[in-house]
Amino acid sequence: MTQDITLNILIADDSLTYRMILKQALKGLEHFTLLDTAIHGEDALNKLDQLNKQDKRVDLVLMDIEMPVMDGLTALPLITSRYPDTKVVLVSGLNRNAADMTIEALQRGALDFIPKPNGDSATDNLAELHTRLKTLFDIVRMRLAKKAQKSSNKAIGNTTSPLRKTPLTPPASAGKKHENSAIKSLAASFRLLTPPKHISALAIGSSTGGPNALITLIPSLPASLGIPVFVVQHMPPLFTASLAKSLNDKSALTVKEAEDGEIVKPNTVYVAPGGYHMQVTQSRRLITIISLNQEPPENSCRPAVDPLFRSVATVYGKAALAVVLTGMGSDGTKGLKALKGQGGGYVITQDESSCVVYGMPRSAVEAGLSDEQLPLSIISSRIQSIMGLTQTVSLSNR
Question: Of 206, 207, 251, 377, which residue is the catalytic one?
Answer without folding.
Answer: 207
